[in-house]
Amino acid sequence: MSLPKRVVLVGPMGAGKSTIGRMLAKELGYRFLDSDRIIEERCGANIPWIFDVEGESGFRERETAMLKELSEEPGTVLATGGGAVMRSENHALLKSDAMVVYLRASIDQQIERTRKDRNRPLLQNDNPEAVLRKLFALRDPIYTELADIVMHTDRKSPRLVVRQLVNRL
Ligand code: S3P
């Protein structure tokens, strides 16, 4: 089996990118990278703080810089933030030497998996469900277009998703 140099996970908030990415990396003997967590470490602040102080555009600048840096790391599984596909300049960075996997989740699953979360500023409002619906309508075609593999995650354990993914890489 010849493995891709990198595996890049894209998809909406609550799709399981971090959980599945960590498990997949272990399975492949690759290093796991989580773009949002590395941005937080570098910045010394969490994502809500970055959105608060620098706005979403400030966060997106950091995200693009991070994707640039991480696109040069072979032997890695990268979990991206749900909005990483929204800048077209990021697309080449995501695709560079990589197998791009779209972890697809229904709106119901996204709601369920993000319900108690306080670290996602885009969902800290009166109607997070409406936000998730709007973002999904906008982003689903872009995730699909970029992806080499579309993996449905609804009603599947992370372990099962990883097993199915390993078979398709
Ligand atoms: C975002 C998703 C988040 C994080 C930020 C913005 C988005 O990442 O990057 O809050 O625009 O969908 P997760 O997809 O890991 O939650």
Automatic annotation (TrEMBL):
Specify the enzyme's EC class, one word: transferase
**Which sites bind Mg(2+)?**
18
Cofactor remark from the record: Binds 1 Mg(2+) ion per subunit.
| Binding residues annotated for ATP, in chain numbering | 14-19, 120
GO-annotated molecular function: ATP binding; magnesium ion binding; shikimate kinase activity
Q: Which residues cross the membrane?
A: none
Q: SUPFAM superfamilies under this entry?
A: P-loop containing nucleoside triphosphate hydrolases
Q: Does the keyword Kinase apply?
A: yes
The source's superkingdom equals Bacteria
Main location (coarse class): cytoplasm
Protein purpose: Catalyzes the specific phosphorylation of the 3-hydroxyl group of shikimic acid using ATP as a cosubstrate.
**Subunit structure, interactors included:** Monomer.
Cite the HAMAP family for this sequence. Answer: Shikimate_kinase
The name this protein carries in UniProt is Shikimate kinase
